[in-house]
Fold this protein.
Amino acid sequence: MQFEVTILGSNSAIPAFNRYPSAQILNYHGNHFLIDCGEGTQFRMNTFGVKRGRLDNIFISHLHGDHYFGLIGLLTSFNLNWREHLLNIYGPPELEDIINVHFRHSQTKLRYAIHFHPLHADEPRIVYDDGMLSVETIILEHRLPTTGFLFREKKNLRKIIPEKITEHNIPYEAINGIKRGGDFTTAAGTIIPNSELTLSPPKPSSYAYCSDTIYTESYLEQIKGVDLLYHEATFIEEHAFRAAETFHCTTKEAARIAQKAGAAKLLIGHFSARYEDLDFLLNESREVFSETYIAEEGKTFSVDHHAGVVSKHPVQH
């Protein structure tokens, strides 16, 4: 079961030290979801072999440029590459005006349709649901209205043991009810408990993306027990005053959120351009939450409930 996140950009406002602004791809069974689209996102997609044709949903957290300045270029490339199928964009209401202004003044007529979904940073809402995966907004506290995103796999049906179908002569029309937890009554009236007929499904996977925010515990309950948490950690503790001024978090603040939420793993990112060596940020965060990792660009983090969260090293094309 594929549920994995590839980091395309992990820096904050200014690209530096070969780090690009915020952008990630969540791959769910081959369907790609783009989370933020900082400057240079499509270049990183090329570098790390992300296929644009599988991308039908884009989520923008807020309207600071390092989270959406790559969007117009990507939309234009879609058009030049003869995209024809629908693209969904989820973001602040004003983003729709920004997109329309660009294409109106460049006299660009898109070959494909865009369905814009305005997001409101007042309360959490489920904004995407395809029956297998849902996306819910996380309300963050930043200088502009900002939402994070909680990707949560739906709970699967129980798995029926094939041999039991033959053993108990279970008719086809009874299988769905058994998968949903029901017992089976044989023609002779014997009740076969569901626990003897099925296996528990895999635990649903989850990923929380907490973009720019000051330290707040307001969303702890919402992300409780998440498998993988990305949380901004723009500054080290020594620069906590700067984090407060700019409505950002420090390494240890991000770690405390992961610890209090009971997350399995933490990715830290959105690094200030003042830091070239990220090992200090990583070690500082690990003082509070040991299962912290750097959101290294090109690296893919897979949620595997047998092996935990595993990372793959960058593969450049």
